[in-house]
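FORM 7B: Structural annotation worksheet

SECTION A. Query
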Amino acid sequence: MMSTAASMNLNPLFLRHDLMIELGRLEMAMQDMRSTTAMNDANAQLQQLESRRARINEALSRLPA
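SECTION B. Predicted structure
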């Protein structure tokens, strides 16, 4: 049972799926932040989200297709 659970965590397909979900959540949060808050207040948070999005995109590009 443990070996099955461990292999699921290492499967690139599952990892790609999880990263794509997280990427979608980040993009929705960024869009919401841009449309509802004053940009001066949100710049620092928006930069953090964009940095995280870039790291996720990089991780996705390293996964096998």
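SECTION C. Observations
The helical segments are 2-10, 12-36, 39-62. The two ends are 27 Å apart (CA to CA).

SECTION D. Sign-off
Analyst initials: ____
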